[in-house]
Amino acid sequence: MYLPPQFNAADPAMALRLMREHPLASLISNDDEGLPFVTHLPLHVDAAEGLPQDGGWRLLGHVAKPNPHWRYLAARPKALITFMGPHAYMSPQVYPDLARVPTWNYLAVHAQVTVSLIEEPQAKDALLKKLIGDHEPPYAQQWIDLGQEFQHKMLAGIVAFELRVNSLQCKVKINQHRPEAHAKMHAIYAAGNENEQALAGWMQTLNLKGLQAPESAKP
Questions:
Q1: How far apart are CA 9 and CA 49, in angstroms?
Q2: Would you state the pLDDT for residue 48?
Q3: Strands 103-118 and 158-173: what pairing?
């Protein structure tokens, strides 16, 4: 993606926080005609093995078996994953002068990955339990109580995969290079909708114009 230096968040902890707080990703690769094919899906982030540039981060997910995307991935096991974080319009009224234009602030992560399909039922079950642990841990017992026959039927209906991260970009575009706008921008965002309030929190994380980040907001 286009990544000006002032918006390049080089700290992997920021990317990790963004991916975990906004787990619905876009999986992008080419179909058999060479056109982009996109699947939107939640992913579990396993960052236990060091830095993403060292091949130590994995993303785990699955698609429905009727979705042809897994066949494209089997044939061409390279893909792009994108995560979109909070985003919002920014009015030029945040500036002290009038010679300004509007823009859109946002946070995003792009990861180039190598895909490995997971076919063994126990491995697929373990992957599902990681996703359950991310979003609704109490459901794990309900899943177990449904019995092996039902579980195997459900597992047969999905294709799971591991996405090994080869490279990672994290873009944090919150007008960092315009400090004269930060105080008013933060005030507007802090009083706004959910996305705007999230951006106000990220402004605190970045400590823009002296805004102090609470410990809970730091990546």
A1: 20
A2: 74
A3: antiparallel
Q: For the segment 24-66, what is each residue's pLDDT rounded down to a tens digit?
A: 999 999 999 999 999 999 999 998 766 666 668 999 999 999 9
pTM of the model: 0.91
The CA-atom distances, in angstroms, between 54 and each of 14, 18, 25, 182 are 17, 20, 22, 35
Domain ranges, ordered by start, for the chain? 5-178
CA torsion through residues 123, 126, 130, 131, sign: positive
Positive or negative: CA dihedral 95, 100, 106, 108:
negative
Considering only CA atoms, which of 65, 74, 70 is closest in space to residue 157?
Answer: 65
Residue 55: the pLDDT is 65
CATH fold for domain 5-178: Pnp Oxidase; Chain A (2.30.110)
